[in-house]
Amino acid sequence: MKLPESFYLNSNVVEVAKSLLGKYLFTCIDGLLTGGYIVETEAYNGGIDKASHAYGNRLTSRTQTLFQHGGVAYVYLCYGIHEMLNVVTSVEGQPHAVLIRAINPTVGLDVMQHRRNMAVVKPTITSGPGSVGKALGISRKLNGISFQSDQLWIEDQGLTYAEENMVAAPRIGVAYAAEDALLPYRFYVKGNIYVSKPNR
DNA sequence: GAGCTGATTGTCT
DNA sequence: GACAATCAGCTCG
After folding, report:
1. pLDDT tens for residues A3-27?
2. pLDDT tens digits, residue range A149-173?
3. Quick one: which residue's CA is nearest to B5's C1'?
4. Which EC main class describes this enzyme (predicted)?
5. I need a surface site. Which of A20, A23, A87, A176 has the fewest CB within 10 A?
6. Is the domain defined by A5-189 classed in CATH 3.10.300.10?
7. Which residues contact A180 (CB under 8 A, 6 or more apart)?
8. In chain A, where the domains are located
């Protein structure tokens, strides 16, 4: 069953990032179903987070999606190559989002393998935000789409993790964000092979 | 309009 | 471990 709209309206984006661990993310692009459960996320805490694109409530054509109500996708291009998927949360006007950094694939492995041009399936197939985007067929055409749609959605299939199996750590690649780079806004499942950086 | 930078990854040494 | 790939947004002029 799809997560209800209310799940995404929580104004505590850090809480949402943590509770997304173990949730199943699916895409159905060009009629091809792919998905798996989320094992790594990062929270971006709206206008007061120097690591966020919307820091200082900066409103541009790119960031306007972040200001929408929770439950839509924010997809953007990084380094000119990688399409990254975020889950927009909280109420309209609060640019909160959760970056999906890694999933444990369960459905459509052959499709993902083809999209990634991999001769053999390796854990890197969905490890890291750029890899997740590519494997799931995410493109900027999905920017602003609802997580209640039939192209992109998240399900709760009853998978949960105990506190000791979830790790909170500083985010990746945000050194420019000064003191905000140290915040423990990255969450991952301890020991899962799809987590993008070494488990500690 | 030029110049720089980034929520990264794959490849080559 | 270094670095190229490649483009949108931001800052200045």
Report:
1. 999 999 999 999 999 999 999 999 9
2. 999 999 999 999 999 999 999 999 9
3. A79
4. hydrolase
5. A176
6. yes
7. A49, A50, A51, A174
8. 5-189
